[in-house]
Amino acid sequence: MGDSTWKVVFGETGTTSDSVYTQKVTIISISGEVLGTFKGSSTPNPFKPSDPSIKGKEAYPFISKGSYGLTHGTHKGRPALVVSNNQFVPTRNKNPNFPDYGKRANYIHVHWGYKTTWKGSAGCPTIHPGQWKDFLAKVPSGSGILVVP
Predict the structure, then answer these.
(1) In terms of CB atoms within 10 Å, which end of the chain has fewer, N or C?
(2) Tally of CA atoms within 13 A in the half-sphere of 64 that contains its CB
(3) Residues 20-24: contacts with CB within 8 Å, 24+ apart?
(4) pTM
(5) What are phi and psi of 133, to 5 degrees?
(6) DSSP state, 134?
(7) Alpha carbon of 27 to those of 65, 66, 146: distances in Å?
(8) What's the chain's Rg over C-alpha atoms?
(9) Using CA atoms, how far apart are residues 43 and 141, in angstroms rounded to an integer?
(10) 108-130 confidence digits (pLDDT tens)
């Protein structure tokens, strides 16, 4: 029983030696072949650059464990992967930026981290900036599945 699509799988925290991009990210083809492994993070920035006193889950929504649809699209006008067609996905905590949303967030994208020292993400899974171009080049065309631990 094979899967009918490719996957981008984020491993548990601590599966890389990187202090910021702590999760091993594996791209798996439709046939189950590993197309590449990268460093990433499925958790957002632990602080808000505009207000560094806001930390952890008070800063941004953390998307819940699960599998989500993934399609090619854009983030800030550059190629990226769009999660669940920009629709709402469940989060582990209330969305501090949009309290009315409750435990959910929308416009979640898999994109490049902005710096090697911080993720630059308000809820999005990110890939180490030094590996982003290679990561994107290895992602198959069409739609796939994002797996978050």
Answers:
(1) N
(2) 13
(3) 20/113, 20/116, 20/117, 20/118, 20/119, 20/128, 21/113, 21/119, 21/126, 21/127, 21/128, 23/149
(4) 0.94
(5) -60, -45
(6) H
(7) 18, 16, 9
(8) 15
(9) 25
(10) 999 999 999 999 899 999 999 99
Q: 3-state secondary structure string, 28-93?
A: ECCCCCEEEEEEEECCCCCEECCEEEEEHHHCCCCECCEEEEEEEEEECCEEEEEEHHHCCEEECC
pLDDT digits (tens, 9 = 90+) for 47-68: 898 898 999 899 999 999 999 9
Tokens of 39: 């460093």
CB 139 within 8 A of CB 81: yes
Amino acid symbol at 138: K
Judge contact between 79 and 103, C-beta under 8 A. no
Residue whose structure tokens are 């590996």:
131
Tokens of 82: 């769009």
For the chain, the residue count is 149
Residue appearing with tokens 């990433």: 40
- Here the tokens at position 43 are 């958790």
**What's the Cα-to-Cα distance from 24 to each of 11, 45, 96, 147, rounded to whole Å?**
5, 17, 27, 12
- Give the number of other CB atoms < 10 A from CB of residue 28: 20
Collapse the DSSP code of 17 into the 3-class scheme (helix H, G, I; strand E, B; otherwise coil) and give the result: coil
